[in-house]
Amino acid sequence: MATISTTVPDPDPASATAPSFEAALGELEGIVAAMEAGKMPLQDALDAYKRGMALLRQCQTTLTAAEQQIRILDANSLREFDAPQDVAPGGPGSGKQEA
């Protein structure tokens, strides 16, 4: 019978720095997989759930901040592209000189 590691990092934010988004997401996926296996003792499952919720909040906060940065960067710069209708082959911008 395979054993599942039930070690859960300390959820106290004062005791460690927050992991990167990718690391937090990976840890969260591992917690979900371990909990879905259903082999954790109750207290370990509760601790894993608490850690998972903290990681979920961190990921959501990180994504919200990234979305806000994108909105700021894209403000007033995204517009529909309308090709000029009056430009014919050999016309202005084609590189050919008119006689």
Overview of this protein structure:
The protein is an all-alpha fold and about 100 residues long. The chain has a domain at about 40-75. The protein has 2 helices and no strands. α1 runs antiparallel to α2 (about 40-75). The longest helix has about 35 residues, at about 40-75. The radius of gyration is 27 Å and the shape is elongated. Residues about 1-10 have low confidence and may be disordered.
Question: Which keywords apply here?
Answer:
51% helix; 2 helices; 99 residues; disordered N terminus; mainly alpha
Q: What is the averaged pLDDT score? A: 78
Number of helices: 2
Structural Rg: 27 Å
Percent of residues in helical segments? Answer: 40-55%
Structural class: mainly alpha
What's the total count of β strands?
Answer: 0
Beta-strand residue percentage: under 5%
Order of helices and strands: HH
Largest sheet: none
Q: Estimate the global geometry from the Cα principal axes.
A: elongated
Q: Segments where pLDDT lies below 50 for 5+ residues?
A: 1-8
Terminal Cα span? 87 Å
